[in-house]
Specification:
The chain is an alpha/beta fold. Helices cover about 30% and strands about 20% of the residues. This is AAA+ ATPase domain-containing protein.
Amino acid sequence: MKSFDWSDIQFKIPSNIILAGPSGSGKTTFLLKLLQHANKLMSPPPSQIIYAYGQYSPAVPQIESMGIQTYEGVPTDEDLQNKQGTLLIMDDLLTNVSEDYLATLFSKKTHHLGICLIFVTQGLFDKKMKFCRSQAHYVILMKAFSAQLGVRNFGQQNFAHQLPFFMDSYRLATKDNFGYLVVDMSPTCPQELRLRTNIFPEETVTVFTPRVQV
């Protein structure tokens, strides 16, 4: 595979990121690592990080210990004003918001406010999330045995002519506990870097590329 610049695989601000997987799949572990390395993994580095959650969990004090502002419930528009360059995490808030709210958040607010949203959910294939999936720049898929059909449908929509390649990449990326596949749908991403895993600084980045037919 061709070499690539680190900037090619950084999460860009502003953008929409969905981090999806069932309970126990490793979403929190992934999120804590991302927050620990946010200045390296995001471009530009976030000016501020806000963590909004639906239900208190042991992750909240861990995140607060990083000096990150936490917020119980859905942030108001006023909370997000003048926050350009902010990384906003909304964790387990799918049941707290309407479909219209999500559509506006993903299609208008993040770009208008100049923020990066990470929406953490167990319900990637919930009816509310249909439009959000189409507006996501990145989707991070954790291992989900119960959602194999949903993952396949997602692959069919976004990799229609390479579905076997997409599913093989997903299986390889999630074969271990807490495994994940980053699906990069941002317009600036080189085509050969769209599927990857092991993205953290202590890991060796793995990029999945289709086999060349001979």
